[in-house]
Amino acid sequence: MKRVAIAAISLLAVATVAQAELVGKPIPIGIGVAQTSNVALLGEEEVNGAKIAEKYFNDNGGINGTPFKLIFQDTGGDEAGAINSFQNLMNRDKVVGIVGPTLSQQAFSADPIANRAKVPVIGPSNTAKGIPQIGEYVGRVSAPVAVVAPNAVKQALKEHPNIKKVAVLYAQNDAFNTSESGTFQETVKKMGLQIATIQKFQTTDTDFTTQVTAVLGANVDLAIVSGLSADGGNLVKQLRQLGYKGPIIGGNGLNTVNIFPVCGQYCDGILIAQAYSPSADPKNAINNALVKAYRDKYKKDPPQFTAQTFTAVQVFVEALKKVEAATKKKITQMELAKVREELNKQIRVGTYITPLGKISLDHEGEIHQENFYVAKIKMNPDNKTGKYIYVK
Ligand code: 1QQ
Question: What's the pLDDT tens digit per position in 287-301?
């Protein structure tokens, strides 16, 4: 009798504790991206997008009147850092969901842990093949390389119809770069071009003499580089310094103004496919809000990683509102585990009008997006600053 009573009381206590997890404070959403290491060259633009989204959506009523708060946990650049960040966000900060990590390489280690804990994850910049298939709780707003990367090859051919021989270079220790290079190689072959040489490197490399020598020896008309920002930028620089004169396509890992100090004047002309254009649709109110906020703060247009991270936060905000509508309860009155479960369902329902245009996430968590672009880097005469000019 007594035992039953104690059990009942402790059950009650558990329920109360569980409910108290979200009571009386802003709804916590985790942001686990790279704020340190070389990968912060990419992650910095994600932090900026998240912060703009936090202010914008809270100024516009938060989650049906309840504010939300972003909790930032640096992942650094490797798998262990991403796992640590995710664990802190899930277990200590008790977030309802996580935007992150920066790299696919990190996602393949950290996302399965969130998936097992039934915490929804939205990848802001994980573009490798296989990310949504990690599990039921993993989605992304970053279109896969298979969809994005071919656009750059098409643009290069449009600008240089005589391209025949191609050099493909990629960082073989990184999951995204391996995946992206696979897409580039398939695209090149499908377009009837010849892959004259395939050169591999490591994201930690700084000297690319061997690879550049092979590219020059193969006498190619196009070089395609899949690396992260520091190694990729250095590789481009050394290609030019050692005399390669043809067009260069950079992959998504070079898709940041933070490569400008790395390759300097030699960044000029790199073509990079884009899943975002700041000026795609002048009637897109939410994009206009992002562009305005970003311009006010940074005096330039927002880059792709900023727009994608803004979008990831937006998906969480709109899906949380849908959870309240579907359950007829306030998020703050629900158990955390229940919120996470319902949130994951609602993320995959309906469409979102975002800075990337109209998007949806299918049952697997894969993004469906309508428009893609290509930009070309134009360096300023100071050879340190420059910009992305949209050519398609
Ligand atoms: C990935 C990527 C990175 C280059 C984004 C920062 O696309 O790892 O999937």
Answer: 999 999 999 999 999
- Give the CA angle between residues 176, 84, 204 to the nearest 5°: 40
Q: Give the pLDDT confidence score for residue 226 in this predicted structure.
A: 98
Q: What is the pTM of this model?
A: 0.95
Q: How far apart are CA 355 and CA 285, in angstroms?
A: 8
Of the residues 148, 176, 308, 367, which should be mutated to test ligand 1's pocket, given the most ligand atoms within 8 Å of the CB? 176
Q: Which residues line the pocket of ligand 1, CB cutoff 6 A? A: 42, 102-104, 125-128, 176, 252-253
The protein residue whose alpha carbon is closest to atom 4 in ligand 1 is 253
By the 10 Å C-beta count (0-12 exposed, 13-18 middle, 19+ buried), 245 is classed as exposed
pLDDT of res. 92 = 98
CATH number for 2-143+285-361: choose from 3.90.550.10, 3.40.630.30, 3.40.50.2300, 3.40.640.10. Answer: 3.40.50.2300
Residue spans in the chain of domains classed CATH 3.40.50.2300: 2-143+285-361, 147-274+373-390
Alpha carbon distance 358, 285 (integer Å) = 12
CA distances from 368 to 236, 346, 363 (A): 32, 16, 11
Q: What is the pLDDT of residue 20?
A: 74
When the pLDDT of each residue in the chain is averaged and rounded to a whole number, the result is 95
Task: Compute the distance from residue 338 Cα to the ligand 1 centre, in Å.
Answer: 31
Ligand 1 atom closest to residue 106's alpha carbon, by position in its atom list: 8
* pLDDT score for 2: 47
Q: To test the ligand 1 pocket, which listed residue (37, 103, 255, 256) has its Cβ within 8 A of the most ligand atoms?
A: 103
Residue 191 has pLDDT above 90, yes or no: yes
User: What are the distances in angstroms from CA 300 to CA 297, 356, 379?
Assistant: 8, 18, 14
Tally the C-alpha atoms within 13 A of residue 380's C-alpha that lie toward its C-beta. 8
**Third-level CATH fold of 147-274+373-390:** Rossmann fold (3.40.50)
Cβ atoms of 336 and 93 within 8 Å: the answer is no
The Cα–Cα gap between 130 and 107 comes to: 10
